[in-house]
């Protein structure tokens, strides 16, 4: 039996026995021993499987370019990242833009604004829509990543990825949502159209904020594994699955306002199932990456 077939046999066995994550964790640990790290294989792993929580921050930092592929550089690079973090933090305190009482997510926002040349003249200036998006993502990330330096850098690079890499793709997601919902449940789509709700769905919450504030962090991080590793299209399938999961409730509502209000505050107790089904739906329509550990 070849090494690949042995691995496939073990994967099937573990899954049948209810230990699906065991083999995946071992496979990731093998990938993380590579030096230099193979970015393509780490991306593919993250696309295929949920990342174990103990390795998530490390993998995200590598995929987002916060850490380089070479292990020997990690400690020194993170020292530079920490120094930069402290310098920016100190600067904001000197100009009295933040204080010890400033909420941490707002600190992250002001740091990001200063580094990107978008710091307003006064902290009392009203927030821009893009600032609200940043705060929503930061609040969710703060629950996932406990170290403040790691957290800031991951938020910073995650938001930059949305604004740069996915800049042209994100505006196309509402159209893709309509396309895939039509394939999965045309009757549900027709109901949304008859209520004039298609254009009023909570697209900013779903796509600009990547479901931050909509899904609990325990479910959200599995979606963000896919976003970080190269697919913003996963967001479409999470939205489709939310609509399918709550179809009966949505079909019972007869106005765009009521439908949108409900979708902005969906019950959180079913979010794990929603995300699992969304990932299956994504693989169904977009295929599964061919690389494996």
TrEMBL record:
Keyword Membrane in record: yes
A Pfam family reported for this protein in Swiss-Prot or TrEMBL: RabGAP-TBC
Signal peptide positions on this chain: none
Key words, A-Z: Cytoplasm, Cytoplasmic vesicle, GTPase activation, Lysosome, Membrane
Highest taxon above the source species: Eukaryota
SUPFAM superfamilies found in the cross-reference section: Ypt/Rab-GAP domain of gyp1p
GO terms, molecular function: GTPase activator activity; small GTPase binding
Subcellular location: Cytoplasm, Cytosol; Cytoplasmic vesicle; Lysosome membrane
GO cellular component annotations of the record: ciliary basal body; cytoplasmic vesicle; lysosomal membrane; TSC1-TSC2 complex
InterPro entries: Rab-GAP-TBC_dom (IPR000195), Rab-GAP_TBC_sf (IPR035969), TBC1D7 (IPR039842), TBC1D7_dom2 (IPR043039)
Domain Rab-GAP TBC residues, every copy: 50-231
GO biological process: cellular response to starvation; negative regulation of cilium assembly; negative regulation of TORC1 signaling; positive regulation of protein ubiquitination; response to growth factor
Keyword field contains Membrane: yes
Function: Non-catalytic component of the TSC-TBC complex, a multiprotein complex that acts as a negative regulator of the canonical mTORC1 complex, an evolutionarily conserved central nutrient sensor that stimulates anabolic reactions and macromolecule biosynthesis to promote cellular biomass generation and growth. The TSC-TBC complex acts as a GTPase-activating protein (GAP) for the small GTPase RHEB, a direct activator of the protein kinase activity of mTORC1.
Subunit structure comment from the entry: Component of the TSC-TBC complex (also named Rhebulator complex), composed of 2 molecules of TSC1, 2 molecules of TSC2 and 1 molecule of TBC1D7. Interacts with TSC1 (via C-terminal half of the coiled-coil domain).
Record's protein name: TBC1 domain family member 7
Underlying gene: TBC1D7
